[in-house]
Backbone:
């Protein structure tokens, strides 16, 4: 596994799926009234923009390098294919690149990932905004910084949180598609497709 | 087996093995674990600092969960190395899976209902970066995230090998299509995507189908493995509308299991969750052919003869379940009459011509060896009655760890029914005394004993051994250790020349046999003695079986010397508690067949019983296997 692939896997599996999307799920449960978790809700909503911005930076960095780091061009930089003789490397890289292009379009996937990143950013913004509105509507003056979603705008907040969760899932799926695996996995997959 | 609602809601206990959620984080809460618990509505019962420091409250938890990292150390700082810990994890799994256990020693013991397992476990050193992103998590090695070497699959293999009955569900952030072949091949029962918002519902479905769960209604009391396996079979059978046969000794609670199955069937239900569809009980033995037709199918009204219409039991049970109790006692004519409805799901009222559709599931129950040709039950009817499976209700002696719960439940019930009775406790000695009994009458017998004790001694605070009358006319049961010493005595008397066997001797014998070799250069000394070797092996098997037969004899006033019981003896012999009676009979026939002319005493009795239970099956099977006509 290349370093980029490893970073992509950790980002998608750990930070996005296990941490960000799970914490949105936790918010949803609290807004549904199935948990009592006010401290978390307050903290999550107040830190949402900053937390997402940090994740987005990491995601963009991965996407910037995605095209060069996925597929045959990356495989031949790492063990075991970097041990091939020049002659073998020439024919094998040409063959794998041909097959790869026939089955993958990393540029389109990266572009879709960028769109989905913007989508998640928009949902985060919307959630923060509804949360702020509900606070000010309920506590127009000095208590405006306290969250009481259960009273005001709860339904809207919940809807927005569910939408953010969905957007996060879609982004995660696209990041998964960016996983080029290794040559053996790739060949096995293309052979399976051929059989089908 | 009956009692009122349980005072505390019983929650299924899950073991979650996952590196991220199982880790402890510097004495504070593990926010990743909190997120997961909120998402799946789990109560964190791990008891570590992460659980104690948690700030959230789950309103209606669906399960209580013990988290384990599957690695060591459980808590790590920058610079520490994290390694996967297979043996340590198996130790944790064993804590919720002791097949024989003493409730007094482990008062909080509860079986795992389900194990929830992650696939990818990160190992290596905890670095500044990895610790910043997820405190206590290592940077990971490339092979950790390779589907060919997932530690989760290694764990799955090991768990499945050691605990084949324990259901394991995969909970992963990995896409299902990427890993489905792998986890299915290794024995997991299913997969739940970690980020699916329907998580609690998906898990609930998995628990219903595969989990080891008690009866939440409290009608069936017990938490032992044999009982929970039977309840799981019942829930699985409840998912379809095929007929089901329930087997079990008298008094073991077959009707309650049938009711449980009915309650767990899908369909519309009352506000309390009880199904709207009917559950009709029929005692199969009471009908003559004539009475059967009118009671079962109903009567079409006839104006000319003045016969009134009558709704039959089939119509009463329409859309629900018809419970045929004591089905083995069903008269022959009735068996013939019932065949059409079982086969075509159609019937006509007596005196009527119109064919009606029967949407009824038959749940039959018996304690007899109904497959036995001598039982006289029609094979074609039997096949249709068990099309949807057979549920075996364990006898009380196989689930003695449920005794304290059952005793508590029956004492309270008896006290409620007897206005003079004081609230009491049972002494440990009295409970031990009950534990030593064989319980041939099972739960019903236990209930009678306790009701009898409460009614005869209403004005006491403690139930002591002297209050308990275990069998009519007998105040002293044959205790287990007495049975063992009797068995030992008989064995010594019978085979005076043989060696007394303990685990060490048996291991030595097995190892000598495994290592025994026939040297080709000494052929003259051993050639032509196959029959002798076979006979010696058969005699060894027979002695092994005999010891088990003696140890499991049922002693009663009528048979003070004890009566041979084939099924329990084979269970003891093989260690397989789920082996069926017919398989046990086949095994006896296989073991004793070569010696049949020489058999005496208990071995002769066992062989005869086995032949009675399975008169043909072995020979039929061997013919089939050999390809001979």
Residues:
């Amino acid at each position: 596994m290349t370093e980029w692939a490893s970073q992509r896997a950790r980002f998608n599996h750990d930070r996005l799926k296990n941490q960000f999307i799970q914490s949105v799920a936790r918010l949803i449960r609290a807004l549904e009234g199935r948990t009592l978790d006010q401290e978390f809700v307050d903290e999550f909503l107040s830190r949402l923009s900053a937390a997402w911005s940090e994740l987005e930076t990491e995601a963009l960095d991965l996407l910037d390098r995605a095209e060069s780091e996925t597929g045959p061009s990356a495989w031949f930089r790492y063990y075991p294919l970097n041990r091939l003789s020049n002659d073998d490397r020439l024919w094998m890289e040409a063959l794998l690149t041909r097959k790869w292009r026939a089955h993958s379009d990393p540029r389109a996937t990266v572009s879709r990932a960028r769109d989905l990143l913007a989508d998640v950013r928009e949902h985060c913004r919307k959630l923060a905004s509804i949360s702020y509105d509900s606070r000010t509507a309920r506590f127009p003056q000095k208590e405006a910084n306290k969250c009481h979603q259960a009273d005001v705008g709860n339904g809207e907040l919940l809807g927005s949180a569910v939408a953010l969760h969905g957007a996060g899932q879609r982004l995660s799926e696209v990041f998964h598609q960016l996983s080029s695996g290794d040559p053996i996995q790739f060949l096995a997959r293309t052979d399976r497709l051929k059989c089908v | 087996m009956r009692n009122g609602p349980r005072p505390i809601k019983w929650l299924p206990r899950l073991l979650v093995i996952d590196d991220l959620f199982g880790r402890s984080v510097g004495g504070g809460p593990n926010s990743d674990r909190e997120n997961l618990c909120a998402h799946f509505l789990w109560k964190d019962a791990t008891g570590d600092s992460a659980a104690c420091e948690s700030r959230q409250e789950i309103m209606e938890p669906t399960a209580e969960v013990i988290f384990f990292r599957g690695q060591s150390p459980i808590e790590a700082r920058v610079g520490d190395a994290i390694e996967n810990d297979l043996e340590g994890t198996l130790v944790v799994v064993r804590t919720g899976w002791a097949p024989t256990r003493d409730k007094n020693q482990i008062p909080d013991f509860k079986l795992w209902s389900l194990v929830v397992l992650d696939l990818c476990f990160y190992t290596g050193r905890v670095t500044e970066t990895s610790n910043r992103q997820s405190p206590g998590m290592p940077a990971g090695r490339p092979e950790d995230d390779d589907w060919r070497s997932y530690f989760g699959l290694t764990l799955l293999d090991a768990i499945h090998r050691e605990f084949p009955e324990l259901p394991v569900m995969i909970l992963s952030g990995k896409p299902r299509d990427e890993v489905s072949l792998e986890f299915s091949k290794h024995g997991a029962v299913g997969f739940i995507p970690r980020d699916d918002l329907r998580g609690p519902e998906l898990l609930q479905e998995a628990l219903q189908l595969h989990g080891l769960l008690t009866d939440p209604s409290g009608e069936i009391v017990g938490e032992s493995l044999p009982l929970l396996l039977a309840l799981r079979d019942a829930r699985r059978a409840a998912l379809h509308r095929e007929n089901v046969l329930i087997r079990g000794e008298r008094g073991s609670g077959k009707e309650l299991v049938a009711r449980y199955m009915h309650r767990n069937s899908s369909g519309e239900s009352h506000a309390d969750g009880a199904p709207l569809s009917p559950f009709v009980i029929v005692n199969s033995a009471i009908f003559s052919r004539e009475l059967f037709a009118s009671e079962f199918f109903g009567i079409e009204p006839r104006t000319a003869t003045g016969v009134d219409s009558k709704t039959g039991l089939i119509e009463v049970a329409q859309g629900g379940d018809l419970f045929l109790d004591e089905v083995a006692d069903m008269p022959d004519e009735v068996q013939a009459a019932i065949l059409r409805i079982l086969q075509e799901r159609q019937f006509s009222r007596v005196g009527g011509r119109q064919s009606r559709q029967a949407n009824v599931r038959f749940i039959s129950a018996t304690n007899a060896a109904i497959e036995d040709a001598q039982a006289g039950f029609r094979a074609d009817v039997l096949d249709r009655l068990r099309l949807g499976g057979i549920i075996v209700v364990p006898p009380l002696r196989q689930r003695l760890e449920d005794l304290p719960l059952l005793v508590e439940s029956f004492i309270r019930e008896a006290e409620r029914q007897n206005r003079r009775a004081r609230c009491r406790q049972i002494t440990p000695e009295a409970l031990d005394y009950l534990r030593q009994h064989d319980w041939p009458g099972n739960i019903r017998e236990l209930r009678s004993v306790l009701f009898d004790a409460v009614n005869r001694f209403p004005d006491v605070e403690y139930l002591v051994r002297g209050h308990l009358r275990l069998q009519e006319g007998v105040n002293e049961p044959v205790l287990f250790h007495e049975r063992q010493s009797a068995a030992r005595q008989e064995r010594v008397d019978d085979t005076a020349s043989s060696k007394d066997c303990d685990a060490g001797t048996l291991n030595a014998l097995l190892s000598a046999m495994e290592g025994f070799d026939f040297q080709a250069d000494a052929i003259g000394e051993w050639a032509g003695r196959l029959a002798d070797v076979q006979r010696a092996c058969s005699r060894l098997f027979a002695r092994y079986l005999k010891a088990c037969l003696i140890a499991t004899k049922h002693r009663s006033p009528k048979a003070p010397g004890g009566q041979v019981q084939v099924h329990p003896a084979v269970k003891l012999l093989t260690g397989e508690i789920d082996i069926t009676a017919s398989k046990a009979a086949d095994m006896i026939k296989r073991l004793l067949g070569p010696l049949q002319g020489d058999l005496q005493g208990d071995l002769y009795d066992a062989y005869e019983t086995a032949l009675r239970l399975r008169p043909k099956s072995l020979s039929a099977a061997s013919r089939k296997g050999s390809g001979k006509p």
Remarks:
- DSSP finds 25 helices and 21 strands in chain B.
- Residues 530-551 of chain B form the longest helix (22 residues).
